[in-house]
Structure formats: structure tokens, C-alpha cells
Write a structure and sequence with these properties.
This protein is an alpha/beta fold and 277 residues long. The protein is built from 10 helices and 12 strands. The chain is globular, with a radius of gyration of 18 Å. The two termini are 24 Å apart. The mean pLDDT is 95.
């Protein structure tokens, strides 16, 4: 039950129809007796810069979960960012500190990598293709680099975004080979769809699936359906896959600690979640 004492966590993005986080956080808060709630807020890109500072004028808000398409923009709207967020060039979490300042952090990449590694696939020495250099793609690429990948290939239609990410990766990980410009998945150990392709039924596949080897691990960030057309096609070829919500379950423990709500395991969160597709 929401009361006048309930602490709010905003979940900001646009559109909101595919949001899954409230169905994970809120049942866990209820189970643990924590008087807090995650509330979806649909904010269009043209309104976001004016909206975010006003949101944190509220007296009963603790922070915000930030999702597409606002993760990159948020970097310039907070007072301080963590090193992880700066390498990624995007943040997906904002904390209102006691002095009124806003701290931005980034957990997407850590959640994705932890999910893949818990399935038995190591990134150390791996060749990885990441399609999408927006907020989530940048974060995933940064965490894959930190996990010891040997070669990361980046692709995005926005040349400035992909080249900027490549420069940041080379600066922080000089031993890493970084290439750009190709979306061909042939020859990679892991391929990642970090684009919105798959949100709509009419979307094309982000990769030429015929070029994906059966030994390749295929990861997804789209959460509108559990098994997107990409994942279904990859599984038909014999590939091991990771669904979008796996990244979410793996990153939420870090979010809970960031917001001061203690911690949880991914298994505990799955037990209480009420996810629907």
C-alpha cells in the first residue's frame, strides 16, 4: 500500500509499455516490508532535460532508474558521475544525495556480463560484436572490456556515437583491439543486440542470423518479449542465448545498494517477481 510516507523511485523512459523493473522491485519491497515503490514515468526526449531537475525537487523521492532514450543525456544533467558511467558515456541510475546533489551511475553492463558469465561463458580473450552504441550498448561494451575481452567490434548507424565509444575504450583498455563499421556476426564468440530492434513486430533482425555460428553466444537487451525474434532464430541455429530480463535481474542488487535498500540475490528477486509479457 502506497502511503504519504512511501519513498519513490522513478523509472524514466519513453515509451513505458515494455518496462519490467516495477514487477521485480515492487514485489521484493513488499516481501521485505520496505515502504518504497518504483513508478514508471513516460517522458519524451524533448521534455527530459527540463523534467529531471524538477523531479528531484520532490521531498519523497530517493532516486531514478533511467532507460531508453535518456541514458546518454542524463550524463549532463547530474552533478557527478562515477568512473563506470564516464567510460560508458551513459548512466542508468540517479541518486539524490543528502546535500541535494545528483549522482549518476551505470549498472547495465555489469548486469549483462554477470548474466552471461553465470551461464558458463567467459569473456576473457573473447571476440565480441556489440550492435548499438547508445546508453545500454556503451555500458555493455565497457563491462565486456573490463571482463577481459581481446577484441570488441562496435556497430551503430550513429557514427559519432560509435567512434566516441571506441576512443574511450582504447583510452581505458590499451591492450584491447577495437574495430568499428561492420555488423557481420561471423567469427565472433559473443554477439550482442543493444539496439531497440525487436521492440516492434515489423523490425528487421539486427544481424544476418545465417552468419552466426552455432557456437556463438547471443545476448539481447530488448525486454518486450522474453524470446525476441533474434533469440528464437539464434536458438534454432543451436546458439546459447541470454534474454533481456536476465541483465535486469543481475543488475538490481547493485541498484538496491546504490539507493540504500540493502541487497538481494538474483534468485531472491526471481522468486518474488510478477513479470508479465
Amino acid at each position: 500500500m502506497i502511503s504519504g510516507k512511501t519513498t519513490l523511485i522513478a523509472h524514466i523512459g519513453y515509451p513505458t509499455e515494455s518496462f519490467k523493473a516495477p514487477m521485480i522491485y515492487n514485489p521484493w519491497f513488499d516481501k521485505k516490508g520496505i515502504d518504497a515503490v518504483v513508478v514508471p514515468l513516460g517522458v519524451k526526449p524533448e521534455d527530459y532535460a527540463a523534467f529531471l531537475p524538477l523531479l528531484f525537487r520532490m521531498s519523497n523521492i530517493r532516486g531514478a532508474l533511467v532507460t531508453m532514450p535518456h541514458k546518454v543525456t542524463t550524463m549532463s544533467l547530474v552533478h557527478e558521475t562515477t568512473p563506470t558511467a564516464r567510460i560508458a558515456g551513459a548512466c542508468n541510475a540517479v541518486l539524490l544525495r543528502e546535500d541535494g546533489t545528483l549522482l549518476g551511475d551505470q549498472f547495465d553492463g555489469a548486469g549483462f556480463v554477470r548474466g552471461v558469465e553465470r551461464k558458463g561463458r567467459s569473456f576473457r580473450g573473447a571476440r565480441v560484436l556489440v550492435s548499438g552504441a547508445g546508453g545500454v550498448g556503451c555500458a555493455i561494451a565497457a563491462s565486456i572490456a573490463a571482463a577481459g575481452a581481446a577484441h570488441i567490434s562496435l556497430f551503430d548507424l550513429n557514427t559519432a556515437s560509435v567512434e566516441g565509444l571506441a576512443e574511450r575504450l582504447r583510452a581505458h583498455y590499451p591492450q584491447l583491439t577495437v574495430s568499428t563499421g561492420s555488423n557481420d556476426p561471423a567469427g565472433y564468440d559473443v554477439v550482442v543486440n543493444a539496439t531497440p530492434l525487436g521492440m516492434k513486430e515489423s523490425d528487421p533482425l539486427p544481424f544476418d542470423v545465417e552468419r552466426i555460428a552455432p557456437t556463438t553466444f547471443v545476448g539481447e537487451v530488448v525486454m518486450k518479449t522474453e524470446y525476441t525474434p533474434l533469440l528464437k532464430a539464434a536458438m534454432a541455429r543451436g546458439c546459447q542465448v541470454q534474454v533481456g530480463t536476465d541483465m535486469l535481474f543481475e543488475m538490481i542488487p547493485a541498484y538496491l545498494e546504490f539507493f540504500g535498500f540493502g541487497t538481494a540475490t538474483a534468485e531472491e528477486l526471481r522468486e518474488s517477481a510478477t513479470l508479465k509479457y
